[in-house]
Specification:
The structure is a homodimer. By secondary structure, the first copy, chain A, is α/β, with parallel strands linked by helices. In chain A, 48% of the residues lie in helices and 13% in strands.
Chain lengths: 385, 385
């Protein structure tokens, strides 16, 4: 097991009716910026619950944070924080709203160019406004970690940043608030959480037995409850297990003391930046082909994955690995996420463009062994055509 | 899944050489109370590493915290904190030293009778000195939770308390510092951690899929690495997995959103208070017979436990349950922990005494269904003779 530091101070309130906890989490004299996306939280009752919990607090609302939150959408919120002397930010929505809020919290007190906070991956962040979140879409894990991904469409960019200063102070996870989500968004959440675990698990063995078992646990839960909660969105327990699995997938325990990959995410971000494909769908396009390309270096973990997650014990080792990868592709297809570029009307011409863009930002050799070079990234995307 | 709040702010530094992290965790101008047990940390090099990391800080040492830390041993440390205006407490040792330090941290700023903080299970604690820990014995999980168990031998008492104020600010877990432990203490740690997971898992189903999987994960890791690390104490990976499994067993994720039992602990504490039996050994005495006595109400989880943890699929349900319980007893015996009262030269006469003592402190009906009444507790201990 590798050395690590684990720290996750976010207080998580999970379950029915937990939105009322906001009233004890945010000081009554706080001036609050409520950050949200579209109007869905108004139609499903979440907004009313949030307003009731905020009661007498001064609240300024800022709506319109989109999927893949954009720098240019968020900067007005940053200016509001500065001009109105906001004390707290409350993000109400899915991972995009939460990621956007993390940027707002970090940028508001920052004197320099806010985009530089993203460009240097968060390393310049030394303080941030306190953040609370009400999560309405299980997917990204942003409710319980210190990471964020920000897009800048004007520059065709989508970049991650991390900072311990942007851990939410608290997050509310009420599975009932997710009942009204469109199936496509639920499926995307399942697929995103699944890939988060892959990125922290499917590398090479470091004898981290607990982490491996926890990762395999989350895979099995997602495989079991994913199709179930899509078929019956108001089955509370199935949805609750999806919500909690998605949070546990990226709150730190699965990934501590082990190598990480994140290549599928890095390649996928480019597909979103270039073609606007949903984040989870880019992962479904990249992942099976990336695993195929890396089957030699990921060999031991692919065998473990095939056996412990998919119950594949028969056949020679190469066959078991192939079956495990095929099961992964089938899983995405089963929950309604196509896994080929052509399903999104994108051709293989994108392959060299993505490889060159990554190389241009210093990602010319990614993956746990830094062996995914531009030519190999290009080959992965060509195989995904 | 039941509603829950999960919060665990402790920063965990895990791995070789991590003791040096103390130097960045405790302010350089802090006046530190170093709390420790016997001299083992001096002979195994831990003390030297700690002193080097504390470097120029003012340090007052207080030694002699015993297994099952005693109120009367700890009160002199409380007085030192007050008289010397201590800013930070650093606990160096196993769960007993850490539990004792939590009491010292809470009692030092408390104006009332310190014992009342224990008697009311921690509910009066409103502040505490900041605590850091260097864990040298994987077992209790105290390094990453807000619980403590304090004994008062003068009154033959052993009582738990909890408070969010006593979460350690940080904990250091270097598996190498545990290489020199006597096998008996390592075995006790394995047995203690195993029972912690039982108490949070073997109740009744609440469709908490992730929590169940995480619990079963820790069982499987302990079953696998327990005997291995006892046989080869300097196998780093085996010991590292034991240390991390013991921490994860009681840091909160396994037990959130599910019913808890803790009856084996409550009954076991009385055996320690009356006869001085090691904590983990009292659990080994109580647990198999408690599971037998509760096989009706724990039926569904006992079946799940037998199958997923021990791989027991054959036979009728009652047989599978019996086999799962027997496997549990065998596991304790395999790691060198006898499971009968007579192995500790204690007779069944203790049974009514324990039952009466628990009832006398308001624990006349314990367990997840509050159905373990004095007569049933007595029967469990008679069966353990």
């Amino acid at each position: 097991m590798d050395n690590f530091t684990f720290h996750n101070p976010t207080r998580l309130h999970f379950g029915r009716g937990q939105i009322e906890q906001i009233s004890s989490e945010i000081p009554t004299d706080a001036k609050v910026l409520l950050l949200a996306g579209g109007g869905s939280v108004k139609s499903n009752g979440v907004y009313d619950q949030v307003k009731a919990a905020l009661s007498e607090r001064t609240v300024i609302e800022h709506w319109g944070v989109e999927a893949n939150p954009d720098f240019d959408t968020l900067m007005p919120a940053v200016r509001i924080c500065r001009e109105k002397k906001i004390d707290w930010v409350l993000a109400v929505g899915g991972g995009s709203v939460l990621d956007g809020a993390k940027f707002v919290c970090a940028a508001a007190p920052y004197a320099g160019d806010p985009w530089s906070l993203v460009e240097d991956f968060g390393s310049s962040i030394t303080s941030a406004l306190p953040l609370g979140t009400v999560l309405t879409l299980p997917a990204t894990g942003s409710e319980a970690n210190s990471a964020s991904v920000i897009s800048r469409r004007a520059m065709s960019l989508k970049l991650p940043f991390m900072s311990p200063h942007v851990f939410p102070q608290f997050s509310i996870l009420d599975p009932e608030t997710t009942f009204s989500l469109p199936p496509r968004q639920v499926a995307n959440g399942i697929g995103d959480a699944f890939c988060h675990v892959v990125e922290q698990y499917l590398t090479f063995p470091t004898h981290a037995a607990v982490q491996d078992e926890f990762a395999e646990s989350i895979f099995r839960v997602l495989i079991k409850v994913g199709p179930k909660t899509l078929a019956d969105p108001t089955d509370y327990d199935a949805r609750a297990n999806l919500v909690w699995a998605a949070t546990c997938a990226l709150q730190g325990l699965v990934g501590c003391g082990v190598p990480h990959d994140w290549s599928s995410h890095m390649i996928g971000h480019e597909l979103t930046a270039l073609h606007g494909i949903d984040h989870a769908r880019t992962l479904a396009i990249v992942l099976p082909n990336l695993l195929e390309a890396q089957r030699a270096t990921k060999r031991e973990k692919l065998l473990q994955y095939a056996e412990r997650v998919w119950g594949i014990n028969a056949g020679c080792e190469d066959e078991r690995i192939s079956q495990g990868i095929e099961k992964t592709r089938e899983f995405y297809e089963t929950i309604g996420i196509p896994t080929r570029l052509k399903d999104y009307e994108v051709t293989a011409d994108v392959a060299p463009i993505v490889a060159a863009r990554l190389a241009g930002r210093g990602m010319g050799a990614i993956g746990e062994h830094a062996d995914l070079t531009p030519d190999r990234i290009e080959a992965i995307l060509r195989a995904a055509a």
